[in-house]
Amino acid sequence: MAKVFCIANQKGGVGKTTTAVNLAAGLAKIGQRVLLVDLDPQGNATMGAGVDKRTLALSVYDVLLESASVAEAAVRSEQCGFSVLGANRELSGAEIELVTLERRTERLKAALAQADRDFDFVLIDCPPSLSMLTLNGLCAAHGVIVPMQCEYFALEGLTDLVNTIKQVHANMNPDLQIIGLLRVMFDPRTTLQQQVSDQLKEHFGDKVFNSVIPRNVRLAEAPSYGLPGVVFDPSAKGSKAFIEFAQEMVQRIKKM
Ligand code: ADP
Ligand code: MG
To answer: Can you tell me which residues the record assigns to a coiled coil (predicted)?
Structure first.
């Protein structure tokens, strides 16, 4: 049975996609069967996992509109060791098309149920908004992983996300919970980041993952090679942190 996680945060540029592709690669490295679902029309996770979004025959768009199954539309990234249900600009149309359709927030959940036995982990990279696409992700998931930078307004931004997750939990998906907050792009030398990190632990306790992802230039360079940092340079500090995070996730799901 696959465990399904959304990587979500309504802010852009906080490290969602970096987390999605590197956690996928880290989990694959430790022997897990992983499907990465790109729900962002920008297709950054697709490209960052070595799959060319411009030449996709089928994508998550076709899956949401029920013209293809996950098994038909997912492609295997051999270099990365996991499967990718890709996205490209076509997906931005789905937003409007879904509005008039039945079960519009349940489409991804239904499609993933068919692929349940093929994977241990399904990771969904969400767009930076609370859209029909993100709702499809949240309705399909057992839990949400929230990457966040330890900056001044970080806690304030979290309130909106936590409320959204509560609403989805109450009205659409009783399974949904926040699995954890992942501190990313972390610089331990910055006093402010340390303070925000301490506040996070105070407010959210063990919902804050033990693993911390440092700011690391190799993680930022890797996408231009079409690879997750974990594959591009496994010895980089950031890559090691993601492998540690993958191990922490494997431990966490044992308790779910
Ligand atoms: P999002 O998907 O939330 O918009 P991204 O994962 O695309 O965010 O990250 C935004 C930018 O920050 C990208 O240029 C990415 O390469 C960079 N980045 C993300 N995480 C790190 C990190 N740990 N160290 C250095 N750069 C990072
Ligand atoms: Mg992104």
So the answer is: 84-118
Reported as type and span, the H/E element at residue 75 is strand 75-77
Among 106, 96, 92, 80, which residue's Cα sits nearest to residue 24? 80
8 pLDDT higher than 90: yes
Q: What is the pLDDT of residues 108-165, one digit of tens each?
A: 999 999 999 999 999 999 999 888 999 999 999 999 999 999 998 888 888 888 999 9
**Superfamily assignment of 3-254 in CATH?**
P-loop containing nucleotide triphosphate hydrolases (3.40.50.300)
Distance of alpha carbon 166 from alpha carbon 112, whole angstroms:
22
How far is the centre of ligand 1, averaged over its atoms, from the C-alpha of 102 (Å)?
35
Q: How many CA atoms lie within 13 A of 93 on its CB side?
A: 8
One-character DSSP codes across 11-59: SSSSSHHHHHHHHHHHHHHTT--EEEEE--TT-HHHHHTT--GGG-SS-
Tens of pLDDT, residues 61-102: 999 999 999 999 999 999 999 999 999 999 999 988 998 999
- Complex ipTM, two decimals? 0.99
pTM for the structure as a whole: 0.97
> In this structure, are residues 66 and 41 in contact, taking their beta carbons and an 8 Å threshold?
no
User: At 140, phi and psi to the nearest 5?
Assistant: -85, -10
* pLDDT recorded at residue 157: 81
Ligand 1 atom 26: residue of nearest CA: 220
Q: Distance between CA 250 and CA 248 in Å, rounded?
A: 5
Per-chain residues with Cβ under 5 A from ion ligand 2:
16-17, 44
Q: Which of 17, 18, 42, 150 to mutate to test the pocket of ligand 1 (most atoms within 8 A of CB)?
A: 18
